[in-house]
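Sequence in, structure out. First:
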Amino acid sequence: MQNTRMEILLIEGDPADAGLVMEMLAKDRKQEFSVRHVRTLAEGLQLLSEDSFDCTLVDLTLPDSQGLETALAVRNQFERMPVVILAAQDDEDAAFKALQMNIQDFLVKGEINGGMLTRSIRYAVQRKRISEKLQESEEEFRETFNQAAVGIAHLAPDGSWLRINRKYCDIVGYTEEEMKAFAIPDVTHPDDLQSSMEHYRRLLNGEIGNYSLEKRYVRKDGSVVWVNLAASMVTDAGGNPRFVIGFVEDITPRMRVEEALRFSEERYRALYLDNPTMIFTLDSNWTILSANPSCAAHLGFSIDELEGRSGLEVFHEDDRPAVDEQLRKCLRSPDRVYRWQFRKIRKDGELLWVEETARAVYDLKGEINILIVCQDITERRRVEETLNRAKEEWELTFDSVPDLIAIMDDEYRIIRINRAMAARLGRHPKECIGLFCYKAIHNVDSPPETCPHSRTLADARGHDAEMEEGHLGGVFHVSATPLLTPEGKMRGVVHVARDITERKLAEAEIKRLNADLAARTTELEAFNYTVAHDLRKPLTVVNCCCQTLMELCGDRLDEECTGYLRDAYDGTWRMNRLIDALLEFSRLANARLSREMVDLSEIAQASAAELELADPERRVIFRLAEGVIVNGDAGLLRVVMDNLLGNAWKYTAMREEGIIEFGVLEIDGEPAFFVRDNGAGFDMLYAGRLFIPFHRLPGVEEISGFGIGLATVERIIKRHGGRIWAEGKPDRGATFYFTLGDH
C-alpha cells in the first residue's frame, strides 16, 4: 500500500542543485514526495506561514541568508517543523552545532544520493514526531500529577518529601516548599506515628510491595484531618529503592458522618425499619445521616449508598436551590413544620416526585438535624402534568394550524372556532360562538347540500368534499368528523376546511405546461431524427463511393490519393458516430426518470469488466467500493458510470499502470460519489468548461471523443436533482464527484 504523500519545502539558491534534489525525490518508489522550491529564505518563510509541510530542506548559501543562521531562522519561526541542512561542503563543526540547534540532519550535497536523502527526510520527520510525543507525554504527566483529585507525593527513603501535588498540600495545609523541609513524623498524628513508620520500614526493606492504611495528619493550623493513604515502592533496574509514591484521600467528612450515623441508627432504628414511608435525617450541612429501607427502595439505592451522601444530590439539579432554601428555613425556625413538593432522581435516572414534611430536631449532643418524612406522589403528578400538557398542546395546536377549524353541536351551532377560521370570517373567535355555521360560514339560511357536515350528523361517520366557497373566497377541501362521547353518543362535529385554491390553480397550470412540454418534446424528437436522417443520407453516399473507388481503382492510385480516400471514409464514419452521440444526448435529456434502489457498485463493476474485455492488454487496477446502494434510474446511472469510467480508461492510456477508483464519501452532509484516476488530469482553470457539449480540453487532442460524454453525464445528474464537479492537476490525475439529490 502506498505511503501518504510528504509535502517538502526546498529552500535552495542554486536551481541546478534544486533540480537534482527534486529528481532524487521523484525517483523514490517507496514514498511519494510533493516538493515546493523557492530560492530565498524570505520566500521560504512566507510559504511556511501559508502552507503546511512535513519537512524543510535548507541550503546554507542563499541570496538573502548565509550559514547556520538560515536553518536557525526556519527552526525558530516554525519549531515543530523538521529541518534538514543541504550544505555545499562537509563541515563537522557546523554539523555538530546544527544538531545542538535541534536541526534534524546535516547533508553534504555532493555526497548524497536518492536513498540517503529520502531516508534522512523520513528519519527527520519520525524523530521530530517522537520528540513531540515525548514532550506531550511529559506535559500530560505533570498536569495529571498536579491536577489529580487525590493527593500524590514522592518520598525519599528517609521519609522526606521530594515532590508533592496541590491536592496533597491542600489536605495538610502546607505549601510544597514547606513540605519538602519535613519528613513523615513532622505531620503525622502522634497516635498514628508508630503504625505509620512501621509500614514504611517494611516497605523499604522489601517485606511488602505496597500498603494502605487510614491515619491522621496534623494540619498547619493544628486541626486534624483523616486520610486514606496508599503507598508503593519504585525501584531502579537493580532493585534498589528509588522513591516511594503515596496517594492520600481526605476521608474526614466520612469519619464524621460515620460517627453521626452510629447515633442516628441507635435512636431511630426501630422506627425506620418498620415504617412504609420514606424517612431520613440530614445534618446541618444536608448530609444524609440515616435513611430507612423504604427510602432506599424508592430511590433505588442501598442504605449504605445514601448515608453519607449530600441530601441535595438525590434531588433534581433544577430543584436543588429551592430545596436548599427550604432546609435553611427549617434551621432558622426549628419549631415549625415545613412541606414541599420537589423532584428526586433515582439511581437509575428515573424521576420521582415527592411530597415531604420536614422539621428541625436536636440530637443528644445538642446539634441540630432535620427529620424528613417523604411520600411518593409521582403518579399523581404525572397524571396532572399529562392532562395540563395535553390541554396546553391542544390549545396551541388548535389556534396555530392554518386550516379553518370549527366545532359545532348537533344543531349546527358553533361551539368553538380557531383563529384562522375566525380571521377568514372577519370576527373574533368569541364572537362566533353560538352562531349557526351555515349562516356564519356559507352566508345562507340552511345547511348546503354539498357540505359534508349534514351527512356526518346523519350517520355519525366522517365525510369530506371539495367546495368552492365564494363567501370565504376560494376552493376548500372540507372534512367533517363526528365528536362522540365515550358511550358513542354524538356531541357534535369537527369541521376542518383547508384552502386549496392555489393548489387547484397550480394543478391546472401544471397540466397545461405538461401538455405543452409533451408536444414540444415530440416535435423536437421528430426534428432530431429527421435531421439525423438527412445528414446520414449524403454521408452514406460518400462512404459508398469511397469504398467503391478503393475496390475498383485502389491498385492504380498512388499513396497520396489512397490517403485522401481513407480520410474521407474515416470522416464519414466519425460523422455517423457523432450523429449517434447527438441523438443519444437529446434522448437522455427527455428520457423518463424511473427511480428505484440501484446497486451502483454492481454497475461500476459491469462497466469496468467491459473496458477490460475490450482492451485486455492494458494494465489497469480498478478499486471499486462495494455495497454502494442509491435511489435513481438504473439505465441512466449506467450511462453515467460508462462515461466516467470510460473517460478514466482513456486518459490513463499513457500510464504504464493505470489506477481507477470508485467510491463514496460525505461532503456537506450528503453522500458524494466519485471516480478517480491517475491519468493525464487537467488544469483547474478549465474545470468550468468540462461539461460544455463539444468542448475538449487543450492537450488531449490525441485522445478520441466528441466532447458529448460529460455533458450527457451532467444532464443525467441534474435530472436526479444532484450536481457534478471535478478536481484535477495536469499529469496528476482527475476526480469526478457527483450527488443524486435527497431521494
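Second:
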Amino acid sequence: MLSLREYRLQELFDVFNINAKNSAIINDNRTKGRIYSRGSQTRVANLIAETESDASHETMIRQDFRKLAYYNSTLMTDNKGRAKFSFTLPDNCTTWRIMVVAVGENNLFGYGEESIVVKQPLTIRPVLPKFARYGDRFNAGFSITNGTEESLIVNTTSNILSDGALEIFQGESTQNLLKLRTGETKIKLFSFEAKSEGSVQLTFMGTAKTKDEKGRSVSDGISVPLTIRPIPPVEKLSCAGEMVDSVSYQINVPQDIRKDLGGVEIEVSNSILTTLKEPLDYLIEYPYGCLEQTLSRLKPLMHIRYLANNKPEIINVSSAALKDTIEKNLKKIVLLQHEDGGFKYWGSDDFSDKYLSIDVAYLYKLCKQYGYSFPVDTEKLTEYIISQMPIEFCYEENMKFKYSESSLFSLYGLSNLTKPDDCEIKHLLQIYNYKDSLCLLARLKLLALLNKTPHRKKALSELHEICNKIKVKENIVYFEESEMWDSIPFERAFYNSKNLAEAELIKLLLEMEPDNALIPKLVRYLISEMNQEGRWGNTYETSSILDAIAFYCKKYEADTSAYTLSLSANGKKLFQLSL
C-alpha cells in the first residue's frame, strides 16, 4: 500500500479488452513491425522485426496473445537509480502500456508510465464467435488489412485442426486470392457446422505477391482456438401430481425438442421430502450467527433427522451428522439466556428479546418430543414471558385488540412450557372477543391455544369460517392476502407473511381435522411458492414452512407402500417398474 500523490489506479479493463461486439472476437494483434511512442513526441524505437530476407521465408504464425507481457515485483536499481530488464513481447500487435512504481529511501516514491504501439504492414484478425455449440451452423473467418502504401494481391489460406468437430461446408474453397487497396480491410467468411464438442484450432494465413524493400514476404498468419460446447440441457416439465391408489398422466411431448439428444425422465417417490433438497441444504449450510437464524435452523432439522431415520433412502443426509449439528447449536442457545430468563438476539446484547424467547419455548417443546438435552432454565423463561404481558386487560376499547395480539403471542409461548391455567384460559376468551380485529396469523395462534382448552368448539367453529374464505384454484388452495399485524415491532415485520399463515393453518388442521382435504393442497401450494434458489422469503419463513411440512409427512407418509410405474407410447408399453 503506497501513499503517492498523483498516483492513480490502472484502467486495466480498458487496456486489455477490445471494444468488440458480443458475438465476435476481433483481435487487432500483429507481431512484426515498428514500435512507436504514444504520449510522447520522441520516437522510442524504430525497430523492425528481423526476418530472413530469403524470398522463400515462410509466414510466421502468431498464436501467443497473452495480455500481460511482463511483471516484476522487485527490481533493484544501481547506485545511480537505474535498472535494466528485458523480456519478449507476445504476438499481440496492440498498445502496450508500461507502468513503473519506484520506492526509495526516506519515503521517496515515484511513478512513470509510457505506451508503445506495435504494427505491421499486413495484418490478419480472426472473426469468430466466442464459442459454438454442437449442431450450430455459423459464418466465421478472418479480416485482412493492407497497412502498406501500395495495393497488394494476397494469397490467403485457411486450415482447420478439429478431428471432425468442425467442418466447412462443401464447395467452399479454403484458398482465396484477395486484392487490397492501400488501407483497405476485407473480410472473408466461411460457413461452418459444429459436428461434435471439443476444441478446434483455426489457422489463417496471407502472403502478398509484393516483397518489401528488403525482399522479404509481406505476410501474416494467426492461429486461434474455438471451443465447441455441448448443448446445455433444457428441461420442460410435462406433468406432475400425486396419487393415493392409482393415477394416469398424459405426457405432452414438446414439438421443439431435438430428436437426437435427451430423453424423458420420470421421478416418483412416496414422500414429498424429495422436493425439498434445496431448502434443506440452505438451512444446513447457511452461515448462522444470531439467535433467530439458529432457531430457524434447528426446528426443521429435528424433524428431518427423525424422518431420515425412518426414510434413509429418501433423505440423503447423515443422521449422525444432523445430531451433531443439532446438539452443538442447542448448547450455543443455552449460553444466550439472559439473567432475566429471556434470550438475547446476540451474545453481546445486554437485553432479552420477547419474540425470540417465545420461539425458544417452542424449541424446548420439540427437544422434549425428540429426546434432546436442552438445559435452559424454564422457570425463569416462564417468568420472563409472563412479565412481557400487559399488566391489566382493561385498556381503552379501541386499543384492546393491539394488546390482545401481544398477550396472545406470550400465551402461545407459555403453552409450550406448561399447561394453560384458569387465568390464562380466561385471558384467551377475552382475546377471542376481539378475534375479528386480529391478523390472520394471530387468529390461527388463538385457535391453536383454544383447542387445548374445554372451549375447543369455539376454535373449531372459527377454523371452519377461516377455511371458507380460502382461495381454491385447481389442486391448490391459499390465502389471497394477509392482514398486517399492527402491534408487531418493525424488526419482526417478517412475521407478517401470508405463507407463514398458510403453514400455521396446516399444523392447525393436522391437529384438529387431520383428514381435511385442504391439507395436501396447502402443502402443494407452499412448495410451488419456493423461489428459484429453492427456499422461501427468509430463514424464519423457510424454517416455519418446513416445520409444517414435516408434521404433514409424519401424518400422511407413515405408510411407505410399494407401487408400480409403467410408461407407454402409442399404446405400446415401454417398461414397467415395481418399487
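Remark: Confidence is low (pLDDT under 50) at residues 15-56, 393-401.
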